[in-house]
Each structure stands twice: as structure tokens, then as C-alpha cells.
Design brief:
The protein is globular and about 30 Å long. The chain has one domain (7-60). The chain is 0% helix and 45% strand. The protein contains no helices and six strands. It has 64 residues and is an all-beta fold.
């Protein structure tokens, strides 16, 4: 589980499900997405990050 100030990298072969509630969301220094990051549906989620890069991956929030 990341904590405030972490620099997080999601590797290209990872599929991550973001299920952190609003009240527990840490403020990240950076997030680099090379794999897939998908927000869990059903509740409000909050992503707090200073620098966000979606490089060779995907960030999926909500539905089409």
C-alpha cells in the first residue's frame, strides 16, 4: 500500500485495480503507468498525485 510521498511505477506486465477509498488515499509524489490501472466501480475514489505519466499503459476511470 503506497504512503504519502511515494513514487509509484506500474510495470508494463501489471494490471492494477485502484480500490483505495477517498479517506485513505495517500498523496503520491509521482505515478508512472506502463501497465493498466483501472478504478474500481461502485464508490467514489480519489487519486492524489503531484506528477502523473501514462506512458506505455492505460488509465481507466468510469464507463463509456
Amino acid at each position: 500500500m503506497p504512503v504519502d510521498g511515494d513514487e509509484v511505477v506500474i510495470p508494463s506486465d501489471w494490471y492494477m485495480l485502484y480500490d483505495i477509498s477517498e479517506s485513505d488515499a495517500p498523496k503520491l509524489a509521482s505515478l508512472e503507468i506502463n501497465g493498466d490501472l483501472t478504478f474500481l466501480e461502485g464508490e467514489d475514489r480519489l487519486l492524489k498525485v503531484y506528477n502523473l505519466w501514462v506512458r506505455a499503459g492505460e488509465l481507466n476511470i468510469g464507463t463509456s
